[in-house]
């Protein structure tokens, strides 16, 4: 069982920055594919960014160039640096981990990010 705990959310003005963190309890964290997803009120949960065990990254078009996903395997932690935030980035952000061995998928509890105009 993998537990994921997000931190770093909050309220920021448009144009500002936030850094989200996701700390994992997983053994062998480095092999997991990690990702950030978000869900705004009335919308489905959507992919924001992913990072593989090899460090390859992928972003949804709406955040590419503004957000950066990274990981520190020594700290069992994944990050999402969010710059030039827009009101449409307002959502609950979720951390996700997927094991390449078992295929198991794990989610964090979510953290609120609110961008005011």
* Oligomer status: single chain
**H/E series, N to C?**
EEEEEEEEEEE
Helix content: under 10%
- Given helix and strand content, the structural type is mainly beta
Radius of gyration: 14 Å
Q: In this structure, how is the largest beta sheet organized?
A: 7 strands, mixed
Number of E strands: 11
Low-pLDDT runs of 5+ residues are none
Q: What best-fitting shape do the alpha-carbon axes yield?
A: globular
* Percent of sequence in beta strands: over 45%
Mean pLDDT: 96
Termini distance? Answer: 40 Å
Number of helices: 0
Plain-language structure description:
With 117 residues, the protein is an all-beta fold. It is 0% helix and 51% strand. It is built from no helices and eleven strands. The protein has strands at residues 4-7, 10-13, 18-24, 33-39, 46-51, 57-59, 67-72, 77-82, 91-98, 105-107, 111-116. The strands form two sheets. Strands 2, 4, 5, 6, 9, 10 and 11 form a seven-stranded mixed beta sheet that branches. It is globular and about 45 Å long. 29% of the residues are buried.
